[in-house]
Design brief:
Helix content: 25-40%
Bound molecules: sulfoacetic acid, manganese (II) ion
Radius of gyration: 24 Å
Shape: globular
Number of strands: 30
Oligomer: single chain
Distance between the termini: 75 Å
Number of helices: 17
Largest sheet: 9 strands, mixed
Length: about 600
């Protein structure tokens, strides 16, 4: 198999190895990185099929990828990561701004010079014996003014293969970078995969990312969380847009009217399932249709008409495997039937991927570490095991996801995992209240990051791990969109995860979430009713269609009541949380918090 023309194998790199571009700044950076990391070869990725085949062949040969059953899962691969490298590492993730307060209490901070010195020492000579891959990529449709480009340098072929699926990678991206003359610089090495020698560093003022010691997901695919959220949120603030941890879906009602909704949930809280929602039977019959624009990241900017227009900067899905089934997400199951990379799942005797909750009647024989499956030892699939797959393979993927101007957003939804207190849905009374609703979001932690699971923490706008600057400034930026001429989306909060006294979820979720989205669209169109409460507007009795759902009276109460005493306590917690940001917390948000706290005191 031929490597791309620029590939070189000699240890002494030819003089032209670092000149794969017509952009001097890019060539100079590649040369500088090569001088410090000392790779044996430099490969400039063009994104071609031949290049992909060459990489896959090499990864099969060295055991990075194992082929899966070619009859049931054509062109699909299993990757087993290092067992110490299975999730994002928030404690090793830093935002390095010159002023510590610019990173804020929501981020780990290191002074840029110290951070460079520490991580550069790790990069020193780390690519000896390895090939260095240069990956030009574009986040968003190549022709969209909302898109932004970057270049990731990595010594991991697995990262190249994933970036090829998750971004618009290769020659067209390089062309745009050369025309624009600037790009986000992302330097990555798997290093020794040693958790003691691992850092994910962001330098927003230099539009630079340096990541060392992990090959996993959000730590290593630098276009995703590092660029499209942490660096982009910083860029978005100075350029007047929003980079958010949100899915985007389109809902067409029986009248043929389509509304786009952007929804923020923390990692592993069902964004992929909601983005690919299949309407319940009755809704399908009536003509409701749901289409997918994105499942994880949303970039939004005000358009000329004052509405917010959104693109999905990604080109693929890096979704959580466990729990994905024909019942929970038939669209995802169809999407991952071929040309998919599975990371840290189990396998069956006939070499099909398997995970807990797949519900297809098959059984695993090998677990995610490659050991014979023994339920007493560990689950077959790691709880944060993933699939990487092109969005184009998804049956519900919308053509509008490729639209250069983006889709107009009718509603923004915030939601976390809350076993108690928080009702199924409520509506913010205006933008400022909506920003407070997002800012006070709480959620129980999941396996997407290392650390304890199931602990309630504040996760404003689901951006706690991803906001590249001080949350106080971030909330002020959100508030700034409310200006004359703006036609902003309505803001809602949902909780699909309320539990009853027996610890069981009370809301069926999945396709039935459309019932809640229908109510939101009714609110946007002014055709459905709500009841005002201090925390926001709750659906009026009968306003959400519950036909065909067997919900006991107790469950309905848990879903639609609000518990004033519980909310008083919640608002005391929110006040304390906002105060952690000191001077940077906008007064308007604190005033909104006080307004509601007072209502909670006086309302019956
Ligand atoms: O590993 S990722 O950060 O890309 C997935 C997630 O946590 O959302
Ligand atoms: Mn995510």
């Amino acid at each position: 198999m031929n490597a791309a023309p620029q590939a070189v194998t000699a240890k002494v790199l030819p003089a032209n190895a670092a000149t794969g571009s017509t952009l001097p700044a890019l060539n100079a950076w590649v040369a500088q990185v090569a001088a410090s990391t000392q790779p044996d070869a430099i490969h400039w990725c063009d994104g071609s099929d031949a290049e992909s085949a060459m990489l896959i062949e090499k990864m099969q040969a060295d055991g990075t990828l194992h082929p899966l059953n070619a009859q049931t899962h054509p062109n699909s691969w299993l990757h087993r990561s290092n067992p110490d490298d299975v999730a994002r590492v928030e404690h090793l993730t830093f935002v390095c701004t010159s002023d510590r307060d610019d990173a804020g209490p929501n981020n780990h901070w290191m002074a840029p010079a110290d951070a460079h010195a520490r991580i550069d020492a790790l990069f020193d000579g780390c690519m000896r014996g390895r090939t260095m891959y240069v990956i030009p990529y574009c986040m968003g449709p190549i022709g969209s003014p909302l898109s932004r480009c970057g270049v990731e340098i990595t010594d991991s072929r697995y990262v190249v293969a994933n970036m090829r699926i998750m971004t618009r990678m290769g020659a067209p991206a390089l062309k745009r970078i050369e025309a624009e003359g600037h790009f986000v610089k992302g330097l990555h090495s798997i290093g020794e995969l040693d958790p003691e020698r691992r850092f994910i560093m962001h330098f927003p003022e230099e539009l630079t990312i340096k990541s060392y010691g992990s090959g996993y997901g959000g730590n290593a695919l630098l276009g995703k969380k590092c660029h499209a959220l942490r660096i982009a949120s910083h860029q978005a603030r100075s350029e007047g847009w929003l980079a958010e941890h949100m899915l985007i879906l389109g809902i067409e009602n029986p009248q043929g009217e389509t509304h786009y909704i952007a929804a923020a949930f923390p990692s592993a809280c069902g964004k992929t399932n909601l983005a690919m929602l299949i309407p319940p039977e009755g809704y399908r019959r009536d003509g409701w249709k749901v289409s997918t624009i994105g499942d994880d990241i949303c970039w939004m900017r005000p358009g000329e008409d004052g509405r917010l227009y959104a693109i999905n900067p990604e080109a693929g899905f890096f979704g959580v495997a466990p729990g994905t089934s024909q019942k929970s997400n038939a669209n995802a199951m169809a999407t991952i039937q071929h040309d998919t990379i599975f990371t840290n799942v189990g396998v069956t005797a006939d070499n099909q991927p398997w995970w807990e909750g797949i519900g297809n009647g098959q059984v695993p024989v090998t677990d995610w570490r490659g050991d014979p499956f023994d339920p007493a030892t560990r689950p077959a699939a790691h709880p944060n095991s993933r699939f990487t797959v092109s969005a184009r393979q998804c049956p519900s993927y919308s053509d509008m996801a490729e639209d250069a101007k983006g889709v107009p957003i009718s509603a923004i939804v915030f939601g976390g995992r809350r076993a108690s207190l928080v009702p199924l849905v409520f509506e913010a009374r205006d933008w400022t209240h909506g920003v407070l609703v997002g800012a006070s979001m709480g959620s129980e932690t999941t396996a997407a990051a290392t650390g304890a699971v199931g602990v309630m923490r504040r996760d404003p706008m689901a951006m706690k791990p991803f906001c590249g600057y001080n949350y106080g400034d971030y909330f002020a930026h959100w508030l700034s969109f409310d200006k004359p001429g703006a036609k902003l989306p309505k803001i809602f909060h949902v909780n699909w995860f309320r539990k009853d006294a027996d610890g069981k979820f009370v809301w069926p979720g999945f396709g039935d979430n459309l019932r809640v989205l229908e109510w939101m669209i009714g609110r946007v169109n002014g055709t459905t009713e709500a009841v005002e409460t201090p925390i926001g507007a709750l659906p009026a009795p009968g306003a959400i269609n519950l036909d065909g759902l067997a919900l006991a009276e107790d469950s309905r109460r848990l879903l639609f009541d609000y518990d004033r005493d519980g909310w008083r306590q919640e608002f005391a917690g929110i006040a304390a949380y906002l105060d952690e940001y000191g001077e940077r917390m906008p007064q308007a948000l604190k005033a909104e918090q006080r307004r509601i706290a007072e209502l909670l005191e006086t309302a019956s």
